[in-house]
């Protein structure tokens, strides 16, 4: 019998590339069938995450967004969605030293892009974020946070003309109903 044990393990090593399930023990419960465990990942997955990229220079921001997509594709990370937010305009004033006299005025735009990553394995996430942080260009900020409904609402631009027309219609007595 002892001579058959080395042969069995040797045969298992040779056959493993052809049939990896050979020789494995079943680890299923009495109450749950095996096929329920097949699709589940053993590694914990993150909830949907939003990568928010903000910067003052539009071309640099667009190139970094392209880089994030490329890195995610190379690491087999699934990107579900990506969207742009309208720019925010800032009025910056520089004063003369020790006075309230304006020396110069600047109008700056802050651009924002968002990338939504889903089913990110926790083992890959740390490496992914470290690569992005290392490659982050100067003047660009990257923040990662879980996806919320508030962020979903912020991504849509309100139609001011439509809102104005609806308020005028309500002031006039609402929509007319014809039968």
From TrEMBL:
InterPro entries given in the database record: Ribosomal_mL48 (IPR027487), Ribosomal_uS10_dom (IPR027486), Ribosomal_uS10_dom_sf (IPR036838)
Gene Ontology CC entries for this record: mitochondrial ribosome; ribonucleoprotein complex
Chain ranges of the Small ribosomal subunit protein uS10 domain: 50-145
Superkingdom assignment: Eukaryota
Gene3D superfamilies recorded: Ribosomal protein S10 domain (3.30.70.600)
SUPFAM superfamilies: Ribosomal protein S10 (SSF54999)
Record's keyword terms, sorted: Ribonucleoprotein, Ribosomal protein
Stored PANTHER family: LARGE RIBOSOMAL SUBUNIT PROTEIN ML48 (PTHR13473:SF0), MITOCHONDRIAL RIBOSOMAL PROTEIN L48 (PTHR13473)
Name of the protein described by the UniProt record: Small ribosomal subunit protein uS10 domain-containing protein
Protein species of origin: Diploptera punctata
């Amino acid at each position: 019998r002892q001579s058959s044990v080395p042969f069995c393990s040797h045969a298992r090593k040779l056959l493993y590339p052809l049939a990896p399930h050979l020789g494995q023990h079943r680890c299923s419960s009495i109450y749950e069938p095996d096929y329920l465990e097949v699709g589940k990942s053993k590694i914990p997955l993150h909830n949907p995450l939003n990568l928010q990229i903000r910067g003052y220079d539009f071309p640099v921001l667009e190139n970094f967004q392209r880089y994030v997509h490329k890195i995610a594709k190379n690491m087999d990370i699934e990107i579900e969605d990506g969207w742009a937010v309208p720019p925010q305009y800032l009025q910056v004033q520089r004063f003369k030293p020790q006075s309230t006299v304006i020396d110069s005025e600047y109008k700056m735009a802050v651009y924002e892009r968002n990338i939504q990553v889903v089913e990110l394995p926790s083992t890959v996430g740390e490496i992914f974020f470290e690569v992005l942080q290392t490659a982050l260009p100067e003047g660009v900020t990257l923040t990662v946070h879980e996806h919320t409904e508030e962020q979903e609402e912020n991504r849509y631009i309100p139609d001011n003309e439509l809102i104005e027309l609806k308020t005028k219609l309500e002031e006039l007595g609402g929509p007319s109903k014809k039968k």
